[in-house]
Amino acid sequence: MKTVVEATGITKVYDQNKIPVHAVNGVDLHIEDDEFTAIVGPSGSGKTTLLNIIGGLDRPTEGSIKVNGHELNSLSENQLIDFRLKNIGFVFQSYNLIPVLTAKENTEFIMLLQKRSKEERDTRVEQLLKEVGLEDKMNKKPTELSGGQQQRVAVARALASKPEFILADEPTANLDSHSASNLLDIMARLNKEEGITFIFSTHDQRVIDRARRVITLEDGKIVSDVRQEPKAS
Amino acid sequence: MIIKIAWRNVWRNKLRSLVVIFSIAVGLTASAFYAAFSWGMTDKYVENSISGNLSHIQVHHADFKRTDPNRLFIEGGPEMVTKIAQNELVEGVSGRYLIGGMASSSRAGAGAMIHGINPADEDVTTGLSSKLIEGKYFEGVKRNPIIIGQKLAEKLKIGLRNGLTLTFENEEREYVQVKFKVVGIYKSGNTALDEVNVYVRSEDLLSEMGSAPKINEIAVLLRDNNDLDAATTNIKAIAGGQKVETWKEYASELNYMISMLQQYMYIFTMIILLALLFGIVNTMLMAVLERVRELGMLMSVGLNKTKLFMMIVLETVFLAIVGGPLGVLISYALVTYYGNNGIDLSFFSQAFESLGISSVIHPSLTWTYYLEITLMAIAATIIAAIYPARKALQLNPSEAIRKI
Ligand SMILES: Nc1ncnc2c1ncn2[C@@H]1O[C@H](COP(=O)(O)OP(=O)(O)OP(=O)(O)O)[C@@H](O)[C@H]1O
Ligand SMILES: [Mg+2]
User: Residue B348's Cα: distance from chain center in Å?
Assistant: First the structure.
């Protein structure tokens, strides 16, 4: 087992209104290769903040974070962008896709940034969209897709870069329960069959039930970290 | 891909983009048309001044001064006129005997610049006969006919066929008085000149002064102003030690006017472009601010700052690339149409005429101006893109994507 995320003493303090808020408060966390981890907790508990720090979108106020061997604190802004491009796939709650590009182009976009060859892009994009069940929607723009379909394109896009792991911040928050469970099916299958590591945050108990590891945050602290047998859909 | 995204982004908000494209086009059209109009006006003025009065080239004695031309003659003047007339670039040559003096009627007197001319030559060179508003061109009066300007006629309170006395110094520096009879009254469009220039036959002057034919000014009208340099070289060769000048030298105020107009043209263009610039900055800033989350997402997934910057600048440049040529096309159509048909300003003609400007203007523009104005507009747009693009760069991806 390889450790992909190694966080030690992570603290993030926001003091925009003069009153310091400890969004994340002394978190130690190890995440291994192949894990399917849910980060849960009430609103404001620090899930997004923690995911952003792991993904190199934000810097911790204190503590060190090592992702896939990279000490993130030592990277410059530009190096961080490059790090994200090469190591992490992102799925956000919404606004995942470039509105003016089709599903195919959105998926291809990351690979273009990585300067992959045309043949590689074409075959991989097709394969990925097939995996998320959208082979017949390749040339549709995001506005022509449902919320669930858009999130599936986002997963395909996140996979396109062959990342070390995928970070998903409340990927199902805007989806109805059918689309949500459909998305979870796809994520779970990718995890199981292709060994892709997922770290996702959620509020939703049905989504939590599908995880193999559940980390609970409260007031920026980890209050529980359990491994469980995921329920089938 | 960045280019594709930028191009499609332009058309996301069609109305807004069209408004910007349209403003660029209208701004360009306005400044191009203004420039063409001023250019047409200047051109007309210069052309009128040259063909009606100044001529392209003048030859004088080296010490000649217009304020006191008396007795400074061109050596071998009459022969020189004949020789210059043979040059194929030359349309007309007029040798003049200029004397500064006084014109007086029984009721008033005024300073006058007496032009002793050969009527036929002068007519070819400055079209004097066509400026007559009363009387005939040296016809109908046998002895000492004179043509005077309308303004002078008013001043002296005289009309056609009235007597007029010219007083001037002869070559022996004695004052002589000679009676003339008004055979024609002209109006050149330049009131200042109409007030002082009077025309008589040079032989009449000579017979009064009892001397051989003499000339102290040779005015040359060319077939084409573009031959100015070549013709000047030719005439210099004929003119020996005399002073040969082109209108650009002796009418330096014309040249000054042209360069000033050009400067005004550029200032006007700058002002319009500046207004455009702020409009574009505003639009692009809106386009950036309403896409904060999307831009945050792009940065999150790995679009680097250079590419993001490029994308915003490209979006702006596309607006200019569509709007610019559109503006040039509209202005070209307008300028060509009015260039052929003319713009009639006779409503204001009195004011223009006293300035010596004809009242029908034919706007014209050189293609270099179109090129310059297009490049300037594109440059302005790129400058306008920089601020919004920098604003986009300042976005922090983690905060940008939170703004949901
Ligand atoms: N940019 C910021 N400036 C100031 N405070 C912030 C900022 N971002 C987050 N916070 C605060 O940090 C705390 C943790 O926020 P975070 O978004 O990580 O929680 P969350 O668990 O993701 O909540 P939610 O379930 O609502 O998404 C909250 O109290 C929030 O108000
Ligand atoms: Mg959150």
Answer: 18
Q: Which helix (H) or strand (E) holds A219?
A: none
**Reported pTM:** 0.76
Please state, in angstroms and rounded to a whole number, the distance separating the CA atoms of residues A178 and B123.
98
Neighbouring C-alpha atoms within 13 Å toward the C-beta of B328 = 18
User: Domain limits of chain A?
Assistant: 3-227
* Complex ipTM value: 0.92
Q: Considering Cα of B52, then B54, then B56, then B62, what sign does the dihedral take?
A: positive
Contacts of B299 in chain A (CB under 8 A): 81
Of the candidates A57, A78, A95, the beta carbon closest to that of B294 is on: A95
Ligand 1 midpoint to CA A212 (Å): 25
**pLDDT tens digits, residue range B118-176?**
999 999 898 888 888 888 898 888 888 999 999 999 999 998 888 899 998 877 788 88
Give the span between the Cα atoms of A215 and B61, in whole angstroms.
106
Residue to substitute from A81, A118, A174, interface B, most B β-carbons within 10 A: A81
Q: Considering only CA atoms, which residue is closest to atom 3 of ligand 1?
A: A14
Determine which helix (DSSP H) or strand (DSSP E) holds B117, and give its type and residue range. strand B109-117
Q: Are B56 and B221 in contact (CB under 8 A)?
A: yes
CA of A75 from ligand 2 middle (Å) equals 25
Q: Which ligand is nearest to the CA of A46?
A: 1
Choose one of A15, A17, A47, A199 to mutate for the ligand 1 pocket test, by most ligand atoms within 8 angstroms of C-beta: A47
Instruction: Indicate if ligand 1 lies below 6 Å from the C-beta of A40.
Output: no
Judged on CB neighbours under 10 Å (0-12, 13-18, 19+), A223 is exposed
- Residue B61 has a pLDDT of 86
Quote the percentage of chain B above a pLDDT of 70: 95
Report the gap between the CA of B305 and the closest CA in chain A (Å): 8
The DSSP H or E segment spanning B71 is: none
Q: A residues 128-167 near B, CB within 8 Å?
A: 157-158, 161
Q: For B400, phi and psi rounded to 5 degrees?
A: -60, -40
A55 lines ligand 1 (CB under 6 A): no
In this complex, which of A58, A113, A161 lies closest to B303 when CB atoms are compared? A113
The per-residue pLDDT for B404 is: 46
Please tell me if the CB atom of residue A26 comes closer than 6 angstroms to any atom of ligand 1: no
In whole angstroms, give the CA distance from residue B347 to residue B358: 12
Can you tell me the distance from the alpha carbon of B381 to that of B315, in angstroms, rounded to the nearest whole number? 10
CA distance B80 to B238: 7
Please give the average pLDDT of every successive group of 10 residues along chain A, which has 233 residues: 91 86 93 94 94 94 93 93 93 89 94 92 93 93 94 93 91 90 92 92 91 95 93 73
Enumerate the domain spans of chain B: 2-49+255-401, 62-241
Q: What CATH number does domain A3-227 carry, 3.30.70.240, 3.90.1150.200, 3.40.50.1010, 3.40.50.300? A: 3.40.50.300
For ligand 1, whether the C-beta of A57 sits within 6 Å is: no
Handedness of CA B307, B311, B317, B322 (dihedral sign): positive
Quick one: DSSP state of residue A164?
S
Angstrom distance (rounded) from CA B306 to CA B255 = 49
